[in-house]
């Protein structure tokens, strides 16, 4: 169940104990219900600050203020983070955003302390709600792509690998705590979620880092490009031939299945029914989520292509463009 993640339930219990200590009263169910409804606006306000920090770092204070204002005024976020909401979603969204922001800042500034904050956010994200799925998958893809780019360019920031390990480590420790809470056996099964994908991406990055550090391509008299191609072909063969590939793809499908809910009873009345893309056009017009995601993807791909073409190498830009079109 999407309600099994324990963090917000235990936090609510702690807040209620503090409330009762000051109030000096017996158990009151109404007070308990009211207390859990106080935290959404608080984390919502903090998320606005995180949005400002993230976009200010890359694009300047004006864009940071614009992103913060959108976060503060977006109707769906206002409804989710308003006082009176007692869902897990506010905590889950906030921790997912915090994981993104601190990880991005840690990579941008090449900072271990920020990497530790990202690890804490990663740890709390998996214990808070099913929203951990999207930061784990997105960061895993980033780690894999960035590791390949660093290997090809022979450039890697000093603490990049450490920050990858910290973020993945937070997810791994969180998976262990969640398995203990579920009374599940502490075996490979605890990684049957996006944590597995994140860990694999980190192991892949560590492998490429080791190849570069010990100058394996030079010793084999191979270019980094040919070495990477060989590693990717070998990895693809392992996924196709071994049962591990089917397990990995099954993990992808099972995890991404949280995005859609086929059974109306899977959610509470307050959290609403499953999202139906059939309503997008009539509700949002040309600004429906599918169109916005498509245009945002196209703009991002075009920007990345131009950066590679002007600042890195034209062959990498062409390779990236072909891969993006194929995807």
Provide a descriptive summary of the structure in words.
This protein has 327 residues and is mainly alpha-helical. It is built from 16 helices and no strands. 27% of the residues are buried. The model is unreliable at 268-274 (pLDDT under 50).
Walk me through the topology.
Elements: H1 7-23, H2 29-36, H3 39-59, H4 61-73, H5 75-80, H6 89-109, H7 112-128, H8 133-153, H9 160-181, H10 194-213, H11 216-219, H12 224-241, H13 243-256, H14 280-284, H15 289-312, H16 314-326
Main sheet specs: none
**End-to-end gap:** 32 Å
Q: What is the structural class?
A: mainly alpha
State the helicity in percent bands.
over 70%
Whole-number mean pLDDT: 81
Shape: globular
Order of helices and strands: HHHHHHHHHHHHHHHH
Give a short summary of the structure.
The protein is an all-alpha fold and 327 residues long. It has helices spanning 7-23, 29-36, 39-59, 61-73, 75-80, 89-109, 112-128, 133-153, 160-181, 194-213, 216-219, 224-241, 243-256, 280-284, 289-312, 314-326.
């Amino acid at each position: 169940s999407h309600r099994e993640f324990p963090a917000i339930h235990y936090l609510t219990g702690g807040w209620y104990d503090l409330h009762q200590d000051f109030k000096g009263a017996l158990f009151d169910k109404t007070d308990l219900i009211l207390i859990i409804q106080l935290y959404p606006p608080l984390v919502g306000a903090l998320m606005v600050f995180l949005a400002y920090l993230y976009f200010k770092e890359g694009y300047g204070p004006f864009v940071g203020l614009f992103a913060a204002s959108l976060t503060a005024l977006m109707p769906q976020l206002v409804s989710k983070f308003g006082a009176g909401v007692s869902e897990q979603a506010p905590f889950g969204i906030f921790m997912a955003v915090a994981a993104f922001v601190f990880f991005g800042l840690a990579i941008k500034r090449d900072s271990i302390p920020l990497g530790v904050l990202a690890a804490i956010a990663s740890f709390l994200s998996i214990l808070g709600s099913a929203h951990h799925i999207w930061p784990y998958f997105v960061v895993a893809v980033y780690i894999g792509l960035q590791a390949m780019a660093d290997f090809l360019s022979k450039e890697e920031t000093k603490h990049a690998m450490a920050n990858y390990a910290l973020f993945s480590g937070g997810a791994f420790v969180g998976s262990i705590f969640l398995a203990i809470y579920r009374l599940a056996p502490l075996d490979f099964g605890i990684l049957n979620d996006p944590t597995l994908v994140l860990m694999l991406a980190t192991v892949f990055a560590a492998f490429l880092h080791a190849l570069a550090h010990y100058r394996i391509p030079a010793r084999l008299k191979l270019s980094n490009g040919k070495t990477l191609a060989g590693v990717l072909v070998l990895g693809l063969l392992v996924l196709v031939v071994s049962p591990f590939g089917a397990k990995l793809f099954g993990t992808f499908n099972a995890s991404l299945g949280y995005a859609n809910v086929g059974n109306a009873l899977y959610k509470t009345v307050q959290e609403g029914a499953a999202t139906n893309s059939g309503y997008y056009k009539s509700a949002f017009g040309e600004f429906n989520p599918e169109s916005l995601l498509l245009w945002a993807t196209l703009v991002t791909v075009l920007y990345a292509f131009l950066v590679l073409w002007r600042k890195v190498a034209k062959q990498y830009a062409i390779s990236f463009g072909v891969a993006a079109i194929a995807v």
